[in-house]
Amino acid sequence: VSFTVSSSNGNATSPYQYGFMFEDINNSGDGGVYAELIQNRAFQGNAIYPSTSDYWNPLNGASIKLANLTNPVSTALPTSLQVSKGNATDTVGFSNVGFWGFPVVAGTTYKGSFWVQGGLNGNLTVCLTSNGNQQWAEAEVSVKSSATWSQYNYTLTPSQSAPNSNNTLNFTFAASDLTNSVNFNLLSLFPPTYNNRENGLRVDLMEAMAGLYPSFFRAPGGNNVEGNAPPYWWNWTQTIGPLADRPGFPGTWGYENTDGLGLIEYMLWAQDLGMEPILAVWSGLWLNNTVLTEAELQPYIQSALDELEFLMGDASTTWGAKREALGYGPFPINFVEVGNEDSLQPVGGPTYRDYRFKDFHDAIKAKYPNMTIVASFFDVAGDAPPYNAGGDFHEYAIPVQMSSQFFYFDNYTENNPILIGEYAIIDYDSPGATGPKWNAGAGRSFTPFWYGSVAEAIFLLGAERNSQKMIGAAYAPSFQNLNKWQWIPDLVEYDAYPGHTTLSTSWYMINLLSGTRITENLPVTFTEGDYNPAYFVAGRSEVTGSHIAKFAVYNSTGDVPFSMSFQGVGGYAQGNLTYITAPMNASNPIGGNVVQTHTTTVTASRNGTFAFSLPEYSIAVFEVSAN
Ligand code: AHR
């Protein structure tokens, strides 16, 4: 393939290009990026998922049950864990199984706390214990409980690491110190968090995200913003303030969300990784296909406006003052997405077009004229959002589909900024298949695999080549807890044991493409060849002052030779070629990596032509510094 990259007539690319989408699915919030280690810490429940004592067990003959006291720890947390000693006379207590185990890492300080009320007076021991009863770390807390609730803190610092996460957190005390029963709530244990934030995020998963160089953050994304059925929706007002004031939310993926990971935590997350928030607001649709009428919608539009005031208003505004009182300055918001995939529902689609999107759009624009409002659907087949609003395009596909989508966005106009809010190859190609299996249990790919990741790269280069129309693209879903998941494949897998965190082949693909940004796309003139089986974009970066070409080679018959030049780059210039490749069908094993990175220096010929070749199923970036 021979081509020349022009030095003029370019198009500025989107400043966002690659981003991150998050929703609590696959225990990716609770039990995932939200670093809390205790599962079911506050016995939250509702009509969809009633409160339960699951994940808690009595120890040494104690009995445990849920209790709705007349004086709970807070109105938001009405249900507590009541512990009685029964006939036990020795040490009694209870334990938590964590999010399928607890990590124990030598020298790490885990910070814990709990609220207690009732008849316990004496020392309570908190201990990280293996299933084989090895005690990794313990703390003694002198408890003097009474009719009113009080909070206690503890820390645990193991001196050796556990070989796995088969550990529990045990709370024990002498039976003789207990009169009648004692009640506990909001029992918590955190490892160190990213940027040491209180109530913060898991370090290895944040580092995994940082490695994607994400520029935008779509949250709360996906179905989880919607709610399964009335009256539950992602009500931001219930996700702010002290943890004791957050009742929790019946998530749409089969489990309760604690909402410890709330609106402010999302904003800090975006801030910590330098991401522009694309804030999703609820659009009046439940997943059971219940939709609000236009009149019923108005309080929820007001709630979205309140949310924006909460995030951006100053202390003279009602909601801005509440944020300031929590100790935070403003969080600028430039993008709001209304709902998620609203066009998919039989009632949802028409009502979204008739009034739901319009009413949110008009109200937000009236107050924030410069804000980009993103509709939750977009398809080139005539389904463009109104008012030049942005539109969210989702693509879950098989490789044969996505690898043919290099030119897909060429057909879109520049009238509506395109957000690829979710994309992924979710299944292998199979004879005759034109699309993926939608049932995650029906043999869908468990993890991303290499030729799928290369097909995704072709799709993304197609988006890059149309970057002037784009906001950017985000893989979905981002995380998978290996112990409980509803959707496969996912970008990053993990469980409670830090050594199991796995960056998928698609993670390596994004790491390469997102890590080198073209700020101006430039036209390409072929002297020989065409795009298939090599797909590429080229341009330059104002940031690094370099010329850049990015490639994906797919389904070739062998190595593909390239001969290319950048107008204005002279003879004997040098460039750095980085390409990644892996066996075609390979996926990353737990904690491992099959993707190989190759880097090499390429020197131009006397007339400025760079010659190199790339293997089949490879993704590459070639960068020539202007100097
Ligand atoms: O990413 C998983 C789900 O796929 C999202 O919740 C939804 O938006 C899409 O259908």
Automatic annotation (TrEMBL):
Output one GO BP term. L-arabinose metabolic process
What catalytic activity does the UniProt entry give for this protein?
Answer: Hydrolysis of terminal non-reducing alpha-L-arabinofuranoside residues in alpha-L-arabinosides
Q: What Pfam families does its record include? A: Alpha-L-AF_C, ASD1_dom
Which EC numbers does the record give?
Answer: 3.2.1.55
Entry superkingdom: Eukaryota
Enzyme class per UniProt: hydrolase
Which GO molecular function annotations are given, in alphabetical order?
alpha-L-arabinofuranosidase activity
Q: Which SUPFAM superfamilies does UniProt cross-reference here? A: (Trans)glycosidases, Galactose-binding domain-like
What are the Alpha-L-arabinofuranosidase C-terminal domain coordinates in residue numbering? Answer: 450-618
Give the metabolic or biological pathway.
Glycan metabolism; L-arabinan degradation
Keywords in alphabetical order, please: Glycoprotein, Hydrolase, Signal
User: Which family is this protein grouped under?
Assistant: Belongs to the glycosyl hydrolase 51 family.
Tell me what this protein is called.
Answer: non-reducing end alpha-L-arabinofuranosidase
**From what organism does this protein derive?**
Recurvomyces mirabilis
